[in-house]
């Protein structure tokens, strides 16, 4: 189980490396543009979760803190949960990367934020939302300045 736990993160490393280290490479956009990349850790989730689906189903349909606390003591449940978190972080990082490229937010600003998404996505995501609003205002200013400075004709 330990191997699958570790593997669920390591299979996502190439995708994170592309977004962080080669954000402007055309193949990065092509690869990261596919939502199928998130299935890689979900395959590990399926391998672990299918045998314990009954137990997991009762946890999600009737959740309680004591039941979940007891369940995560089981390495299979914890590994499935970890693989799901890793898949979610990759999905969110993928969206942030694609959105930031569409908005022309500089890769040097995005690299630390994407690292933050790997480590603590609940903190990094709201920071990115603020960043995109600020970047959007800057783009509006640039556009309105360009429009004002264009000679009428």
Automatic annotation (TrEMBL):
The keyword tRNA processing does not apply. Keywords: Membrane, Transmembrane, Transmembrane helix. Pfam families: ABA4-like (PF14108). Signal peptide: none annotated. The keyword Membrane applies. InterPro entries: ABA4-like. The chain crosses the membrane at residues 6-24, 36-57, 77-97, 109-131. It comes from the Bacteria. This is DUF4281 domain-containing protein. It comes from Nocardia rhizosphaerihabitans.
């Amino acid at each position: 189980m330990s191997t699958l736990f570790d593997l669920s993160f390591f299979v996502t490393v190439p995708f994170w490396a592309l977004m962080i280290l080669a954000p402007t490479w055309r193949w990065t956009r092509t690869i990261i543009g596919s939502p199928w990349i998130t299935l890689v850790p979900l395959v590990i989730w399926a391998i672990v979760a299918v045998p314990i689906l009954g137990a997991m189903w009762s946890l999600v349909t009737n959740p309680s803190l004591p039941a979940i606390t007891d369940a995560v003591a089981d390495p299979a449940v914890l590994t499935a949960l970890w693989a799901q978190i890793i898949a979610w972080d990759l999905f969110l990082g993928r969206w942030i990367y694609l959105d930031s490229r569409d908005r022309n937010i500089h890769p040097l600003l995005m690299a630390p934020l994407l690292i933050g998404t790997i480590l603590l996505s609940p903190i990094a995501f709201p920071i990115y939302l603020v960043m995109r609003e600020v970047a959007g205002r800057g783009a509006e200013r640039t556009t309105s300045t360009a429009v004002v400075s264009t000679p009428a004709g």
